[in-house]
């Protein structure tokens, strides 16, 4: 079903993508801690929880059957299969946060980013890069959570993810965490003052000037 493109405001919608191990989650959590206007969309997934993950906090964990039912009902703004598991973003959750003037972050892959752009063409895409592929592999191996087979699959998927780098207007190289965080926060701040996000306020100001 073709969806009519929507305007984003009053809040901004950010799509952050990266290969596994690039530091996307760490950067996002740090940004959320510094900017109370930001909100993180909690994805729905069929994968098993990792140690320390809580349902409803890090992800909404569901069965494949439940996920399929939600897909069929049109509950997802975007959905994709990643590393053999399914992930989806709640449509209603995003709309509610944007309407409340929150700036919403989606941590999704390039497939989901393409779907989001079709519905919200004014969304802002940010791609996080590791400083080198060797560093990426080292980070994945250093997690200690995945088998060699899973790591190999993630490395292969990272190569595919990197092929879609040019689809994102902003790219941050995560070599120094503090510098990368500052750059990410700058992107958020710049998007906030776009005309598309301030159109109502600007219209009221212009009208007041003309009636002086």
Beta-strand fraction estimate: 15-25%
Shape label: globular
Q: Can you write the helix and strand succession as a string? A: EHEEEHEEHEHEHHEHH
Widest sheet, order of strands: 2-7-1-8-9
Provide a quick synopsis of the model.
Its main location: cytoplasm. The protein is α/β, with parallel strands linked by helices.
Entry keywords:
single chain, 212 residues, alpha/beta, Rossmann fold, four-stranded mixed β-sheet, 9 strands, 45% helix
SSE arrangement:
Layout: E1 13-17, H1 24-34, E2 38-40, E3 44-45, E4 60-61, H2 64-72, E5 76-82, E6 85-90, H3 91-99, E7 103-107, H4 110-119, E8 124-129, H5 133-142, H6 148-162, E9 170-173, H7 177-192, H8 195-210
Parallel strand pairs: 1-7, 1-8, 2-7, 3-4, 8-9
Antiparallel strand pairs: 3-6, 5-6
Helix pairs in contact: 1-7, 5-6
Structure description:
The protein has 212 residues and is α/β, with parallel strands linked by helices. It has a domain at 13-41 and 103-210: Rossmann fold. It is built from eight helices and nine strands. The strands form two sheets. It has a five-stranded parallel sheet with strand order 2-7-1-8-9, with helices on both faces. Helix 1 crosses helix 7 and helix 5 (133-142) runs antiparallel to helix 6 (148-162).
């Amino acid at each position: 079903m073709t969806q009519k493109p929507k305007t984003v405001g009053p809040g901004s919608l950010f799509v952050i993508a990266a290969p596994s191990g690039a530091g996307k989650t760490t950067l996002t959590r740090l940004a959320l801690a510094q900017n109370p206007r930001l909100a993180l969309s909690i994805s729905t997934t069929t994968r098993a929880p990792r140690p320390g993950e809580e349902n409803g906090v890090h992800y909404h964990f569901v069965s494949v059957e439940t996920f399929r039912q939600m897909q069929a009902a049109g509950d997802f703004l975007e959905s994709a299969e990643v590393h053999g598991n399914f992930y989806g973003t709640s449509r209603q959750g995003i709309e509610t946060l944007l309407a409340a003037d929150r700036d919403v972050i989606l941590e999704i892959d390039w497939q989901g980013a393409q779907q989001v752009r079709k519905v919200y063409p004014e969304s802002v895409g940010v791609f996080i890069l590791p400083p080198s592929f060797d560093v990426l592999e080292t980070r994945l191996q250093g997690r200690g959570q995945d088998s060699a087979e899973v790591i190999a699959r993630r490395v292969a998927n990272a190569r595919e993810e990197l092929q879609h780098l040019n689809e994102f207007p902003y790219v941050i190289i995560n070599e120094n965490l503090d510098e990368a965080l500052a750059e990410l926060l700058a992107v958020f701040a710049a998007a906030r003052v776009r005309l598309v996000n301030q159109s109502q306020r600007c219209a009221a100001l212009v009208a007041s000037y003309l009636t002086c």
